[in-house]
């Protein structure tokens, strides 16, 4: 919008209740909110026809390039066994699925409950002629054949699975992103805007400052983006004068965010760092309780550098041991920040989030995806798994996200999962951990429907408070505005 532009959204109903109002937007901010029809419209008048309005949504955790790339990979998300995966991959190869840099790439398998484990020999037999790289649904492991082993000079065991550090390093070395056009990113951003999203927190491990600034300069302007920096780029970013909260692009859409550190693995790969061993694991095995991806002393060193340089931190911690150690580290440094995932937390640690001023950034749909694997691998502990209700009752500040591509980049999916703890024909899983809708909505936004706030807004055709679980998940979005301009409109 130009400095003199204005817009009036007439006859809209606030999500938090009350009579219909007119919302005046001027210079990218909410300039006035008045009872509907009581004042002359300012600028362009848009009749909301009684639709519902609230602040636009933020997804607090995405891997945007991985989200875009997912569309180019063979879809394995509906598979439930190694045999299922092999059938899909074999069929894709036979039907001429496009190779990416000479590789057949797939995404979305989850092997945590497979009755028969993965096998490199079986993958060789299914596709013997080209490298095959299959990315797990949680991004924490890959299943590869011997052709991929030869290409990348890695060592695979009999399963063909590579997990955590070595795998993540390999994943980030692939050239898939080089073939992505700006239009592919724009399509994904527009799709997010069509679901009411105005901003995302980007945790891609790349040069986010340069890449996102280039995208907005080329016209990708449907989203605000809060970008992370990873440890290998931290000191260079500080040397450039970058601090948390700095705007780094000319459009004013890209904000320098936090240092991202990954302290442990994931539940599905049984690498989340826990206090108790995983079922069937020899307690004497060095990784019986998961693994410490970044040693805590190294975490403390990195966070110390970040704090001194004016950079806040976001630390990935999934297992209860990881969460305890990360809480201890933030406390020792007297530093605030974000704990990403917080999937399994000791009872005595819930209150520490609020006491230390830490944000719990959680992904509600993961609880729906992982409830069965949690019941198996965290047996006896799931009352404190994905425990959003416990965190809220203990006073923790919450932010909701998707971890896209791990779950859909759709805030309504997250809201439904957070408030219902069920989907499909299944009963609620640990219903005591459900969040009230007002709490879930507040954890999904960064502004409010109030004068002086950014005009980052979403209009829906239905009232979220009157929607049941499935209606909330599929909520029709009529319009999305970012700084007062429409990024999505369907009326």
UniProtKB/TrEMBL annotation:
InterPro entries the record matches: Amidohydro_3, Metal-dep_hydrolase_composite, Metal_Hydrolase
Pfam family, one: Amidohydro_3
Domain Amidohydrolase as annotated: residue spans: 44-486
Molecular function, one GO term: hydrolase activity, acting on carbon-nitrogen (but not peptide) bonds
Gene3D superfamilies: 3.10.310.70, Metal-dependent hydrolases (3.20.20.140), Urease, subunit C, domain 1 (2.30.40.10)
Top-level taxon of the source organism: Bacteria
SUPFAM superfamilies named in the record: Composite domain of metallo-dependent hydrolases, Metallo-dependent hydrolases
Protein name: Amidohydrolase 3 domain-containing protein
């Amino acid at each position: 919008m130009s400095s003199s532009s204005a817009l009036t959204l007439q006859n809209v109903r606030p999500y938090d209740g009350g009579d219909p109002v007119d919302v005046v937007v001027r210079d990218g901010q909410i300039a006035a909110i008045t009872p509907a029809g009581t004042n002359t419209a300012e600028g362009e008048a848009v009749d909301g026809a009684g639709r519902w309005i609230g602040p636009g949504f933020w997804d607090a955790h995405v891997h945007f390039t991985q989200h875009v790339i997912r569309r180019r990979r063979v879809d394995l998300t509906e598979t439930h066994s190694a045999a299922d995966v092999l059938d899909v991959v074999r069929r894709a190869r036979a039907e001429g699925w496009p190779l990416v840099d000479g590789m057949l790439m797939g995404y979305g398998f989850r092997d945590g409950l497979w009755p028969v484990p993965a096998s490199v020999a079986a993958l060789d037999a299914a596709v013997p002629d080209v490298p095959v790289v299959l990315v797990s649904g949680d991004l924490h492991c890959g299943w590869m054949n011997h052709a991929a082993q030869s290409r990348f000079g890695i060592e695979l065991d009999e399963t063909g699975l590579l997990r955590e550090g070595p795998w993540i390093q390999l994943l980030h070395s692939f050239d898939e992103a080089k073939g992505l056009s700006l239009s592919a990113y724009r399509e994904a951003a527009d799709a997010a805007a069509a679901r009411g999203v105005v901003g995302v927190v980007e945790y891609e491990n790349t040069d986010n400052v340069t890449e996102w600034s280039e995208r907005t300069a080329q016209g990708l302007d449907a989203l605000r983006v809060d970008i992370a920096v990873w440890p290998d780029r931290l000191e260079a970013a500080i040397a450039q004068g970058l601090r948390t909260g700095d705007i780094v692009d000319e459009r004013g859409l890209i904000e320098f965010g936090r240092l991202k550190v990954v302290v442990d693995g994931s539940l599905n790969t049984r690498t989340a760092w826990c206090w108790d061993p995983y079922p069937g694991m020899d307690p004497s095995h060095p990784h019986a309780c998961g693994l410490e991806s970044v040693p805590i002393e190294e975490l403390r060193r990195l966070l110390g550098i970040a704090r001194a340089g004016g950079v806040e931190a976001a630390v990935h911690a999934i297992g209860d041991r990881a969460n305890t150690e990360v809480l201890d580290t933030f406390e020792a440094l007297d530093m605030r920040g974000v704990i990403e995932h917080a999937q399994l937390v000791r009872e005595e640690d819930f209150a520490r989030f609020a006491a230390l001023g830490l944000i719990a950034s959680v992904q509600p749909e993961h609880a729906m995806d992982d409830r069965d694997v949690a019941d198996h691998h965290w047996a006896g502990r799931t009352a404190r798994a994905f425990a959003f209700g416990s965190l809220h009752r203990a006073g923790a500040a919450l932010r909701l996200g998707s971890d896209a591509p791990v779950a859909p980049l759709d805030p309504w999916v997250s809201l439904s999962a957070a408030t219902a703890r069920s989907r499909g024909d299944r009963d609620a899983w640990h219903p005591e951990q459900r969040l009230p809708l007002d709490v879930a909505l507040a954890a999904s936004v960064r502004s409010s429907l109030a004068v002086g706030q950014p005009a980052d807004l979403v209009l829906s055709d239905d009232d979220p408070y009157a929607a049941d679980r499935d209606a909330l998940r599929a909520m029709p979005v009529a319009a999305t505005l970012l700084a007062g301009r429409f990024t999505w409109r369907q009326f």
